[in-house]
Amino acid sequence: MEKMWAGRFTKALDKTADDFNSSIHTDCRMYRQDIQGSMAHAAMLAAKKIITQEDCDAILAGLEGILSDIDSGRLEIDMNSEDIHMFIEAELTKRIGDTGKRLHTARSRNDQVAVDIRMYLRSECDVIIDLIKSLIRAIVVQAEKNKNNIMPGYTHLQRAQPVLFSHYLMAYTYMFIRDIGRIKDAVKRMNLSPLGCCALAGTTYDTDRNMTAAALGFDGITANSIDGVSDRDFCVELLSAFSVTMMHLSRFSEELIIWSSWEFKFIELDDAFTTGSSIMPQKKNSDMAELVRGKTGRVYGDLITILTMLKGLPLAYNKDMQEDKDAVFDGVDTLKRCLEVFAPMIETMRTIPENMYKAAQNGFINATDLADYLVKKGMPFRQAYKIVGGIVACCIESGCVLEDMPLEKYRSFCDMFDSDLYDEISLETCVAKRVSQGGTGFASVEKQIREVKEFLND
Q: Would the pTM of this model clear 0.90, i.e. be above it?
């Protein structure tokens, strides 16, 4: 196939160099956006009388046919083409003759690819946001099912204070809601059309960039033509947002892996989302969660790839920027695959509340409430803290928990203790007393669930 830039050159491109230069294997996924952009461009050219309406109609009909044939499988994309833009232009010319060559008037591949990738990522972000919402819904369902189940909350991976399992789960919903906000924010800045910037300097034709921007669903146009073709900030922003989402998925994965171990056994993941061992028949491995945790580093790498690629580039377009699509598409694909497996993994997860409760009982996680009991009776907190620390040490030595220590023993530490202390340090009371906004109290968690449902219904 003759290169569209062949006129300047006296010999063909070396086959190895041609393969190295080609991006068709990566950018072929943007065929729909490329055709949509070309149709908007052709309509604008006709409206501005740069091409005739007759030529425009032929171009639009040809492009519609190409799109239909690719969608149906009747037309296979030629992987020997340099890129998707050249494949579609060559196919159009094959179908409608020299009229197809008029399409590239007042346009460069530089602004063409810039508009295609923005449109493609905008569409993929809609899919990703829907997937995150599906995950949030799955978490909310589990939170409602486990609304009153008590577990130990942790700091430093040490048992700290009793919390509701539903409260723990809801923490992740707020992380994922912020992730949606970050993605939407990045899309808002991305949603400006570079079409019409041409190679870097604009064009001598009297074009209407706002017309094509509106036709393609953009909020406006890029204000500087050099910036329009050379900007890939939106790739950096999206990969940054994706990296944060993956980080949240990875943290959640770590929890699932720990919780499903025999040492914890707070949950059991469904057989459909676990695997076994080739040699140990008793094993049930949380491989899906482990893979999500591992793939997080991959998306981080995609972000670093883009940042490194851009850091030394002069304006405007450079061929280095062809590498943007490999990185950002990999980030898109990886995040989507992780979300696709994560939501059903959460939906089918079985909780084991009795193990959570037993762990909460054995961790002295009501010690702060015991100290607060003394504070309410007038003792300074630091003094109460020290007394309770001694009581905990005594319990450890004698092999009992705070709930089981006899009242006489309590009174040997402080005569302010009375029989009402046992109600004060019950796990249910400890949770119920957390009445502050956002805390683990029953009413607070109910409110969180309502808020997140309202977000999902907006």
A: yes
